[in-house]
Amino acid sequence: xxxxxxxxxxxxxxxxxxxxxxxxxxxxxxxxxxxxxxxxxxxxxxxxxxxxxxxxxxxxxxxxxxxxxxxxxxxxxxxxxxxxxxxxxxxxxxxxxxxxxxxxxxxxxxxxxxxxxxxxxxxxxxxxxxxxxxxxxxxxxxxxxxxxxxx
Length: 151
Known about the structure:
By secondary structure, the protein is α+β, with helices and mostly antiparallel strands. It has helices at 3-14, 20-27, 31-43, 76-84, 110-123, and strands at 63-69, 89-94, 101-107, 127-131. Strands 2-3-1-4 form a four-stranded antiparallel sheet, with helices on one face.
């Protein structure tokens, strides 16, 4: 991956709808060359998808929370398919520490969140929940810097 690939990735992370023409002008290469590079980045698994970011509160999801779950290794076979089917879970990670899973969830109300936590606890085990008051840094990409070879 060279300087141009990193610039393309940075531009797409900032705005996935940026035009090939805009990228072409910024990178000083043709639009077909930009398209070919994007295709190669997709085929190599560097770019894994394009997503729309929405304001969850405007969709009436006013409660965001992080739920930590103590999950026994034997429960993973049941837990993973179950949690993938819950649309309110917007991310779930297997982590180290006292809790083995951390989920980011959104719900319309705290009552809905409480109901979900009760289900999780009855099926899988102990949880710890933190409700988000505000977000100082939204999900974002990492700005790729040029390597020493590019200078």
